Amino acid sequence: MYRDTRHVLERRAERQVSLPEILQALESGFHERRKDEFKEEWQAWNYAIRGWTVDRRELRIVVSFDEEGFLLLITSVDLGGGA
Predict the structure, then answer these.
(1) What residues make up the domain containing 69?
(2) Mean pLDDT of all residues in the chain?
(3) In a domain, 35, yes or no
(4) Binning pLDDT at 50, 70 and 90, where does residue 65 land?
(5) Ramachandran quadrant class, 81 (left: phi over 0; alpha: psi -120 to 50; beta: rest)
(6) What is the pLDDT of residue 1?
(7) Measuring CA to CA, which residue among 75, 39, 43, 40 is closest to residue 60?
(8) Quick check: is 14 in a domain?
(9) What angle do CA 64, 53, 34 make, to 5 degrees?
(10) Model pTM score
């Protein structure tokens, strides 16, 4: 189970990344440990997943977990030179 954050919704619209693209990138991707980051304000880790969509669009998806164990979609980045 996952939950969108306000930030990911804003970035999806700004970068024209659809939810199915994010889910495909998460499914096809790998953990990019060097991009992980501990967020003091939330006392939680953000994890970076790098993957590809069906049409080979390369994305980095940043996720975290809430106290209930839900996967939080934090942001999406188009690594193909897009916005």
Answers:
(1) 2-78
(2) 93
(3) yes
(4) very high
(5) left
(6) 85
(7) 75
(8) yes
(9) 40
(10) 0.89
